[in-house]
Design brief:
The complex is a heterodimer. Chain A is α/β, with parallel strands linked by helices. Chain A contains nine helices and twelve strands. In chain A, α5 links the parallel β7 and β8. In chain A, α2 packs across α3, α4 packs parallel to α5 and α8 runs parallel beside α9. By secondary structure, chain B is an alpha+beta fold. Helices cover 56% and strands 17% of the residues of chain B. Chain B contains eight helices and three strands; from the N terminus they run ααααααααβββ. The longest helix of chain B has 22 residues. Chain B is elongated and about 70 Å long. Classes of the chains: A alpha/beta, B alpha+beta. The interface between A and B is medium-sized, with 18 and 22 residues.
């Protein structure tokens, strides 16, 4: 199992120092411009990489945004990742760019939209694709449960699941369900990668600020996922308040515990 | 989710909002089941993301506003959503207009001119600055912008010597 981090410029020196057990990098396509493509190729030669998307809006009905797909594909060509990934979400409608991930209804037509877009993206990039669960304060009802939706989606798109353990935990707290029971309803063979980062709390609501150290409950939930499914990679996904090398080592030690390496 | 006014109306009359938005009959039940508290919480997440992007363009201005920056942005963004593709710069420009009307002293003119230039189409622009921060104190100066092809641009600030 590869342990890694979402690559951020602030982490470049730490990555260069070749920390023990750092076995992969996740590159967010939207973080890189045209002039970064050589740098991406360098990263792709050093470690296995995955290219992750934020804004392709797979859940928006109609065609994908050609410009964004082309940029994503350029990053993929430069980095040559093991696989690519995007969120099960929409970030815009035909008229409005909402600028962030929003949940899609748990309905068959929405599932087909996401699945068909995922297939199209995978074909265009020539790489396998994983789809990621998001966190949302808004719970959209539908004809399917969330786990039925995810299983049907992976089946139709013929893809894997990037299970964001933090998002699962946050949703379970905000919407009142048991994350372990949720996990047991997901087809284990689909879960290939995990995302993890500490959660934040605002009042009585849990939030995904991508800024906190991983809490113990999250380590335990991630260990349960690893025991349940053939996970190939665990990626720490920090965006804000990126810590120094010593604290990164502490976080990497938590990933080792998740992977059963002590 | 993009309109605070509509969210308020949803609380008072969800069925009326459903009719006004032309929600499909098949989606109507799901729409009416939306919890206003959750809707508002999700909207705040989106506004916070917008604010984080705007803050990158208006770092000095937001520092000057201090704790007032986020509440002011919430007040501005509740009824305003940028339509253009250069989303964040347009949003910053809109927020600048609100700050200029309410707290002009907090507005950094260098940032104000920059977002205006970026949101426009002029090939070049020269703006007068009353007070360029220069230790110890301030000096008058000029801010010059030049736009290249493919959206690239350059900026220079020159100020009067000692």
């Amino acid at each position: 199992m590869h342990l890694g981090v979402g690559y951020r410029r602030e982490l470049a020196a730490w990555v260069e120092s070749r920390p023990r057990d750092l076995g992969c990098l996740e590159l967010t396509a939207e973080h890189f411009g045209e002039c970064d493509l050589d740098h991406l190729a360098g990263l792709g030669h050093r470690l296995p990489v995955y290219v992750h998307g934020l804004g392709l809006s797979l859940g928006t009905p109609g065609p994908l945004d050609g410009e964004r797909v082309e940029h994503f594909a350029r990053v993929v060509r430069a980095a040559n990742p093991v696989w690519i990934s995007e969120h099960i979400a929409f970030t815009r409608t035909a008229e409005v760019d909402l600028g962030h991930l929003n949940p899609v209804p748990l309905a068959r037509d929405a599932m087909k939209t996401v699945a068909d877009h995922a297939r199209e993206l995978a074909e265009q990039c020539g790489k396998p694709i994983l789809l990621e669960n998001i966190t949302s304060h808004l719970k959209l009802a539908g004809e399917l449960t969330e786990t039925e939706f995810l299983n049907a989606l992976c089946e139709r798109a013929d893809c894997g699941l990037l299970l964001d353990v933090t998002n699962l935990f946050i949703n379970s707290r905000n919407h009142g369900f048991d994350p372990q029971a949720w996990l047991c309803e997901i087809e284990p063979r689909r879960i290939r990668q995990l995302h993890i980062v500490g959660y934040s709390k605002h009042g009585n609501r849990y939030a995904d600020s991508h800024a906190a150290p991983i809490q113990e409950e999250l380590v335990e939930l991630a260990q349960a996922v690893v025991a349940y499914a053939p996970v190939e990679s665990v990626v720490l996904e920090l965006d804000e308040e990126i810590p120094d090398a010593a604290e990164m080592e502490v976080e990497l030690a938590k990933l080792r515990r998740i992977a059963g390496r002590n | 989710m993009q309109s605070g006014t509509l969210r308020d109306e949803f609380v008072a009359n969800a069925a009326g909002v459903s009719r006004r938005l032309g929600v499909r009959p098949s989606d109507r039940e799901m729409f009416l089941q939306l919890a206003p508290v959750e809707l508002e919480a999700q909207a705040v997440v989106l506004l916070r993301k917008r604010f984080d992007l705007v803050r990158r363009w208006l770092a000095r201005t937001c520092r000057s506003l201090g704790n007032e920056a986020w509440p002011m942005f919430q007040a501005y963004s509740r009824t305003t959503w940028p339509q253009a593709k250069s989303h964040a710069a347009n949003d910053a420009k809109g927020f600048c207009a609100m700050i200029d009307a309410n707290r002009p002293a907090a507005l950094c003119r260098i940032e104000f001119h920059r977002v205006h230039f970026l949101c426009g189409e002029n090939r070049w622009s020269v703006c007068f600055l009353h007070a360029v921060p220069f230790r110890p104190g301030f000096r008058p100066g000029l801010q010059i912008f030049l736009r290249h092809r493919r959206g690239r641009w350059h900026e220079w600030v020159i100020f009067a010597g000692a």
